[in-house]
Design a protein that fits this description.
The chain is α+β, with helices and mostly antiparallel strands and about 270 residues long. The protein is built from six helices and eleven strands. The protein has one domain. The strands form three sheets. It has a five-stranded mixed beta sheet.
Length: about 270
């Protein structure tokens, strides 16, 4: 029997401290989970090259880029070689300084252009680097989170994913300052197969006729919106049927590219 009051008090204090610590762990776990969001993001490229230090979009945003610029700039042949990939990403949605769209993406800062060598026009060489042209001063800390902006053609969203903020496989979001993490493997569809299913886009001739116009973006926007509903339907069906299509490895990166057993993708009716 313990007959010393100070011993009883010490045990009580230790018990209270332990209970408070448990509450702290539970609260922090709930707080962490509540700030983590998971989204799909899409990227069109010549290969399945990931999103590290790259720009991507939501489905509407990437459709805007493909149908409004990518195919027009590349031409029909190169456009058909394009691969559209869907990635699953987790990120910290806690409010950041100078969030441009806080009501939708509080955890995203300014959108950055991610190009080879960090150039803003894509003409530089070297590794991909995200460069933020919206940063008014170093104090804005513009590359401290993923970036977002409303796409200028149809009202979707475009994202930037700075490589220095990507979490390693062994890290959870927040460890060592990391802000986003890829989850699982991407799935992809070829633009060639999408076109065979009726996907519409701005042609090379149409793009060249518009590229020097002062109203280029407005005119491209009209064309993108004209095709948007049917294009989105085609894209949604392509990616929704991912599990019904056999997979192969792309570029030796463990990426999954959707490919039918025959020549074309096969879509099930809704």
């Amino acid at each position: 029997m313990i007959d010393k009051p100070w011993v009883i008090n010490l045990i009580a204090i230790q018990l209270i401290a332990f209970i408070l610590y448990l509450f702290y762990l539970i609260f922090n776990t709930i707080l962490y989970k509540s700030s983590i969001r998971t989204i799909y993001t899409y990227r069109i490229a010549e290969t399945v090259d990931g999103i590290t230090s790259h720009n991507t979009g939501d489905l509407k945003g990437d459709n805007s880029y493909i149908s409004g610029e990518f195919c027009g700039k590349k031409g029909a042949e190169e456009c058909g070689k394009g691969i559209m990939s869907r990635y699953t990403v987790q990120y910290d949605n806690s409010l950041v300084k100078n969030a441009p769209i806080p009501s939708v993406y509080p955890g995203f800062g300014y959108y950055a252009l991610c190009n080879k060598g960090g150039g803003t026009d894509g003409s530089s060489g070297g590794d991909y680097v995200c460069t933020n042209t919206n940063c008014e001063s170093p104090d804005d800390d513009c590359i401290s989170s993923p970036g977002v902006e409303v796409d200028r053609f149809s009202g979707g969203y475009w994202y930037s994913w700075p490589g220095e903020l990507e979490c390693k496989d062994s890290e959870k979001i927040g460890d060592n300052g990391c802000k986003w993490k890829l989850i699982g493997e991407p799935v992809s569809v070829s633009v060639k197969d999408l076109i065979k299913k009726g996907y519409q886009y701005l042609s090379e001739d149409e793009y060249n006729n518009l590229k020097d116009s002062k109203t280029k973006d407005e005119q491209i926007s009209e064309i993108v919106k004209k095709y948007k509903e049917s294009n989105i339907n085609i894209l949604e069906e392509a990616f929704s049927n991912a599990k019904t299509i056999s997979s192969t490895k792309q570029q030796g990166l463990g990426r999954t590219i959707l490919k039918d057993k025959g020549a074309d993708l096969q879509y099930k009716p809704r």
